[in-house]
Specification:
heterodimer; A: alpha/beta; Aconitase, domain 4; 7-stranded mixed sheet; 31% helix; B: alpha/beta; Aconitase, domain 3; 2 domains; 5-stranded parallel sheet; 16% strand
Chain lengths: 163, 429
């Protein structure tokens, strides 16, 4: 069970998640400080260290649209967030799979800040409202990467098989 | 079984006769492109090799391209250090398709790849940049990936776990009205199908308006396909593709002309009559918030930008120079021009476009991504408004969340520079 700490609208771009001016910062260990840097309240909350691991950011459609910058996934992963959205933009979703950021595609989700969500296989239950919503699974191929512990581990295994 | 162009390319790249939509494949990569974010790719590439005892070696140095463009020349010590690390890596690994900060070879990655003939019809092209979709203009299946995924490509030479995408067929017929350009067509399309209308899908462009369009215009359209969420935006290769590759890119080798099967199965079909389109504007803060210019005429503009991988080519600068010849940029408006490559810069200089633009009051910035993503030059002040031929208008895109960006064609940008307000170029500004 996890709590929604913030609610965002549709079409949240990677420029909002991780502004372009920080793109010279590349290491996943260094990106979390700039997460949502142009949204002062959210950035401050995340950097306060008071947000428990596994907290949820709720978003609308097309979350992560725009740039392929992987920092947008690593910065959220660095804060141990779970992103529940109506749907995700392709490159962002793949980057999340590759880096191990947990995403949940839930097209009909109805929830608000403060609500507790229980994320189960195939559905999300809003414990606060009592309503249940179906979720879309990752593609099988994406799930294999997640199960391998991310794309680095997955590729290393393939490299060793080939060598 | 009938196939779309991308199905054909992916079938070939995975050693099959046929691939069906949704099938998971592992296509071989013909070209893998990165820019300054190659620094992160290197980091992830090293992480893959960690503990394997194997020598760190990319799968094929001839199939990797690295182009410095996002922050050239470096704006900070951090960028300069990233660029230095990449330069060392390029030398160690023997990567030849490397474009450093040099006046004789630099430019925006999505301009350099076509200009140097690095992209061919039928290629699978991946790039750590979302606008890698650009290269569909030459009949390649080209798409953006993240840095870790690129590290996997550098390791194995293929893209892992790619689902064959469904394709939307876009048929654009008719002739553009004067001062209406390919940019207006793609903005119109994005407005129509929305920013997620083609998410996980491919846009395949057909029709007389595409047939009669040159490669520069096709690059604009393929480039912005990602703004509708498309994995790729592809134009079936034709005589114009051959002309460009032979005459502009200087390609000597055999060129393989793949085309989609006539009765291939499409996800959907979108028909557009381009003769009925007027100049289009994408209003803040999403690219699909598109309106005809008549709906936003008169909005005051502090910064005009002409350039980028979307609209920084010779014909774009020509359009601007023709409109601004003998005119002046409005007093309270600044105009920044950044050609997409030094070759274009040189040609625009020889043709006198740069001189015309300078005399009008425009500032010519060196080729690169420049003001487009607000990390290097041309940031906006609080409350300022930009009108730009670039590809994104997301909040904060030009370096300031308290500013606004409108997107338009070079003709609209140039006409508006004279008045300092969004202006319809058809009204003879």
């Amino acid at each position: 069970m996890a709590k929604i700490i913030y609610k965002l609208e549709d079409d949240i771009s990677t420029d909002i998640i991780y502004p372009g001016r920080y793109m010279a910062t590349v290491l996943p260990t260094e990106t979390p400080q700039y997460c949502f840097d142009d949204m002062a309240d959210l950035n401050k909350m995340l950097n306060s260290k008071e947000v428990p691991a596994g907290s949820i950011i709720l978003a609308g459609k097309n979350f992560g649209c725009g740039s392929s910058r992987e920092q947008a996934a690593s910065t959220l992963k660095g804060h141990n967030l779970i992103i529940v959205a109506k749907n995700f933009a392709r490159i962002f979703l793949q980057n999340s799979v590759n880096l191990g950021l947990q995403t949940v595609s839930c097209p009909d989700i109805e929830a608000n800040v403060g609500d507790e969500l229980e994320i189960l296989e195939g559905k999300v239950i809003n414990k606060t409202s009592g309503k249940s919503f179906d979720t879309l699974p990752l593609q099988k191929a994406q799930q294999e990467i997640v199960d391998a512990g991310g794309l680095i581990a997955y590729t290393r295994k393939r490299l060793l098989e080939k060598a | 079984m009938k196939q779309t162009l991308v199905q054909k390319i992916l079938a070939r790249a995975s050693g099959k006769q046929f691939v069906s939509v949704g099938e998971i494949i592992e296509p071989k990569v013909d070209l893998a492109m990165s820019h300054e974010n190659g620094a992160l790719v290197m980091n992830q590439f090293q992480a893959i090799y960690e503990g394997t005892g194997l020598e760190l070696k990319v799968w094929d140095p001839n199939r990797i391209a690295i182009i410095f463009d996002h922050r050239v020349p470096a704006e900070s010590k951090k960028t300069a250090t990233n660029q230095k690390k990449i330069r060392n890596f390029v030398n160690t690994q023997g990567i030849k398709k490397f474009h450093d900060i040099r006046g004789d070879e630099m430019g925006i990655c999505h301009q350099i790849l076509p200009e140097y003939g690095y992209v061919r019809p039928g290629y699978v092209v991946v790039g750590t940049d979302s606008h890698t979709t650009s290269h569909g203009a030459l009949g390649a299946f080209a798409f953006g990936i993240g840095a870790t995924e690129m590290a996997a490509v550098w390791t194995l030479g293929s893209v892992l776990n790619v689902p064959v995408p469904p394709t939307i067929k876009v048929i654009a017929e008719g002739k553009f009205a004067p001062f209406v350009q390919p940019k207006d067509l793609i903005l119109y399309l994005i407005g129509k199908i929305t920013a997620e209308g083609a998410n996980f899908k491919v846009l395949e462009f057909h029709g007389s308006a595409i047939k009669s369009m040159d490669t520069s215009g096709r690059l604009t359209i393929s480039n912005m396909s990602v703004e509708a969420g498309a994995t790729s935006g592809i134009v079936p290769p034709d005589e114009e593709t051959l002309r460009y590759l032979r005459e502009v890119a200087g390609v000597k080798e055999n060129i393989d002309m793949l085309s989609p099967d006539e009765d291939a199965e499409y996800d959907s079909v979108v028909n557009i009559d381009v003769s009925s389109i007027e100049p289009q504007i994408a209003c803040p803060h999403t690219v699909d918030n598109v309106k005809p210019v008549s709906a936003v005429e008169g909005v005051e503009i502090q910064q005009i930008v002409i350039g980028s991988c979307t609209n920084g080519r010779l014909d774009d600068l020509e359009t601007a120079a023709n409109i601004l010849k003998g005119k002046k940029v409005a007093r309270n408006t600044r105009m920044l021009i950044f050609p997409a490559s030094t070759r274009i810069y040189q040609e625009a200089m020889e043709k006198g476009y740069l001189s015309t633009l300078l005399k009008a009051g425009a500032v010519i910035v060196n080729p690169g991504c420049g003001p487009c993503l607000g990390i290097h030059q041309g940031a906006l002040g609080d409350g300022e408004v930009a009108l730009s031929t670039t590809n994104r208008n997301f909040k904060g895109r030009m370096g300031n969340p308290n500013s606004e960006v409108y997107l338009c064609s070079p003709a609209v940008a140039a006409a508006s520079a004279i008045t300092g307000k969004i202006t319809d170029p058809r009204k003879g500004a």
